[in-house]
Amino acid sequence: MPTMHKLNALHFAKHLIRNASDNKSNSGNVVVIGGATSMTGSIVLASLGALYTGSGWVKLIPLDPRFPHIIQSFPEFMIYKTSHSHPQDILKSIQPDVIVIGPGLGQTETSKSWLLAAIEYYSPLIIDADGLNLLALYPEFTNLISDRFWTTIMTPHPCEASRLLNTTIEDVQKDRTGAIMQLIELYNSIVILKGHKTLIGMKAETVLTCLDGNSGMACAGMGDVLTGVIASFVAQGLHHHLSPWQASCLAIEVHALAGDSLARQGIGPIGMTPSELAKEMRHILNNVI
């Protein structure tokens, strides 16, 4: 059983300090894939997480063709249609620094083709939500992920972890450290096991546990925001000497501290929303760096 230590990553934020000459090209190009019919909110929340934590570009690939007509409140987002082009061709044209796949993705053949394209693309990859559920359905993807040259980051909650490990939620929760170690070994990835005292681990690193955060964050969409901020920091880190491991640790801590900050202001724990938390992360960052 590995030794666990408290997550302490806020000092990594200094790497995100911008020079006067910085521009959007070296502030991170994040692409978020998901948002199938009836699940467009997930891709929006992930994109807000990236937007409010400094991504130079936030580009959305929604699977719901009505998406551009549904969302009009965020002109900062660049939206790409999925029709008439192969997923690999679209990704090559966008040239993302980091790909997020999974929020609201669904579990269709189209979703599967996008997941395969994301796995095969030459960039760091964050897999969340239905991306993880697809991995559980198609174990032939396991070796594709474990053999990737670029970093893969997986963000399961206990239910998704149980599907990936072909076990029960109760067994995962009974031995969260054991579960995360199994996932790390199976997928050769950075794994973030969400929940009370979120864990993060990877091969050759000590498993860390986040002791910040509160029950107000038990709300649908909070994980989508976390996925977006992980992508944001990983993308910025490619240009600012911050490794994917450091970026992931920082993202978890900033996300949790934002929840605690909102609770101190009376914006929670009851009624705290992911959209509010996304903006509060911006406040946390700008007061740290």
Can you tell me about this structure?
The protein has one domain (26-288): UDP-N-acetylmuramoyl-L-alanine:D-glutamate ligase. Helix content is 45%, strand content 12%. It has helices spanning 40-51, 67-70, 87-94, 109-120, 130-137, 141-146, 158-164, 169-174, 176-187, 222-240, 244-264, 274-288, and strands at residues 5-6, 29-34, 57-62, 78-79, 98-101, 125-127, 152-154, 190-193, 199-201, 208-209. It has a ten-stranded mixed β-sheet, with helices on both faces. Helix 5 packs parallel to helix 7 (158-164) and helix 10 crosses helix 11. The chain starts with a strand and ends with a helix.
Summarize the structure.
The chain is an alpha/beta fold and 289 residues long.
Layout of helices and strands:
Blueprint: E1 5-6, E2 29-34, H1 40-51, E3 57-62, H2 67-70, E4 78-79, H3 87-94, E5 98-101, H4 109-120, E6 125-127, H5 130-137, H6 141-146, E7 152-154, H7 158-164, H8 169-174, H9 176-187, E8 190-193, E9 199-201, E10 208-209, H10 222-240, H11 244-264, H12 274-288
Parallel strand pairs: 1-10, 2-3, 2-5, 3-4, 5-6, 6-7, 7-8
Antiparallel strand pairs: 8-9, 9-10
